[in-house]
Amino acid sequence: MTTQRFSDLRIWQAAHDLALNMHSVSQEFPQEEKYGVGGQLKRSSALVPARIAEGYGKYYLRDKVRLMEAAKSDAVVTQNHLLLSRDLGYIDGAQVDELVAAYDGLLAGISKFIGATSKRKAAEKTDAEQPTKKNVEEGK
Fold first, then answer.
1. Which residue in 5, 22, 45, 95 has the fewest CB atoms around it within 10 Å?
2. Host domain of residue 63
């Protein structure tokens, strides 16, 4: 399957679903946490699919990798907010374990995407450096 847009990426779909889940989870927090850990949880989880989308749109490999690494960082921050929310008694421990594991899977997926993209770009570069018949004939 050819990826036509960022929303076709499985990592974006997983990150988007998790962000929606974090939004729902944070709605159950006490009102005083609307701008506290609940708000931080929503913001950090929303940044993950946003950075994946932005990275997908970049041409240069270094820019793609930088944004995918930022998405991984935001996912880890979200895991931290989940653990904090559990310890503050806002989320059930079993639910947090499930969500942290889902983010672990997402982190692995983003790492695989970075590796595959890097290999593909390296192969494209190698192919571009191969001499063509025309270049050989012209002495280039």
1. 5
2. 7-130
